[in-house]
Specification:
single chain; alpha/beta; six-stranded parallel β-sheet
Length: 318
């Protein structure tokens, strides 16, 4: 949607009386008017590097539970290229506790498990995506075997990782040591449970996903929607629309949500306050404020239309 394609909001201003009789219809209209930003590509810089080569992309992944395999599939849908699953000569146990124990022992012994995977045709590859679950703070040891056997010198290397709270751990540092002559780009980490949860919603035929923590009232201490939004956006890609709520109060908040992967935002409490304080005029004033703030944020960040808003326009603080 281009910046001047704001017909929905303009129609709202031309039909104040109709809006006053149906706050629910108005809220739906606002959501549609704010929506329209395309979901950002997975790993903005990495995707750009990958798109320059088309088939010169390789996705190598190791997966035990299947979450990393699904994430690798999402990336393949975006950037194409070849996919190779890293496999060991001796399969890991299916039991979770058993595989965790074996992974710990391998790491303590600095083991190099035997692998059956070969990386052929590396001379035809410019960008390599490397995917893995975080095992004891880093890559599974089979990747140490693989990357010591095959050189990725001169290539773009993009890590992606599934975890249950440990994020990348020290895996990026270990990757840099294993691939000292490669260009390590910023990667992506996601909780494995969120990959599978979002995927189930897509498989069930959902047309959209609402990202909400219900104001934190259902489960105290639950993650803020802004923290999980990028993971969910990258997991489902552009197959469904993503709506987000929680703390959206200003146009700059809308800008941040769109940058992190939302297609639309949902706002409730400020509209109730505006309506209570000023009726129809109060809501009109609030919407105009949102639009002005969003427009200012876009221009300050170099986005001339909603589809120009990308994740690298916001800074994530940990």
């Amino acid at each position: 949607m281009k910046k001047n394609d704001t017909g929905i909001l303009d129609a709202f201003f031309r039909h104040e009386d109709a809006m006053a009789t149906s706050r629910r219809v108005f809220l739906k209209t606002l959501v549609l008017g704010a929506a329209a930003a395309a979901v950002p590509a997975i790993f903005p810089r990495a995707a750009s590097a990958a798109q320059t080569g088309g088939e010169r992309v390789l996705i190598v992944y190791f997966s035990h539970s299947g979450n990393t395999r699904r994430l690798a599939g999402f990336i393949h849908d975006r950037v194409g290229g070849r996919m190779i699953e890293l496999k060991t000569a001796k399969p890991y146990p299916e039991d979770y506790d058993a595989v965790v124990d074996e992974a710990r022992k391998e790491q303590e012994a600095d083991a190099r498990p035997e692998i059956t995977t070969a990386l052929d045709g590396l001379d035809q590859v410019d960008t390599v995506f490397i995917g893995y679950p975080n095992w004891w703070g880093t890559l599974p040891m089979p990747f140490f075997t693989l990357l010591e056997r095959y050189s990725l010198a001169g290539k773009n290397v993009v890590p992606f990782c599934t975890h249950e709270g440990s994020r990348f751990g020290r895996s990026e540092r270990d990757l840099k040591a294993l691939c000292p002559q490669a260009r390590l780009l910023k990667g992506f980490e996601v909780r494995g449970s969120r990959v599978s949860g979002a995927e189930k919603a897509v498989e069930a035929g959902a047309a959209a996903i609402v990202v909400s923590n219900h104001g934190g009232r259902v489960l105290p201490g639950s993650a803020a929607t802004a923290d999980v939004l990028p993971e969910i956006a990258d997991a489902v890609g552009d197959r469904v629309k993503i709506l987000v709520d929680g703390g959206i109060r200003s146009g700059t908040d809308i800008f941040r949500a769109l940058a992190l992967g939302a297609d639309a935002v949902m706002i409730c409490r400020p509209f109730l306050i505006s309506y209570y304080g000023g009726g129809t005029e109060g809501i009109v004033t609030y919407v105009e404020k949102l639009r002005a703030e969003l427009t200012d944020a876009m221009y300050m960040c170099g986005a001339r239309c909603l589809s120009d808003i990308t994740r690298d326009m916001v800074r994530e603080l940990r």
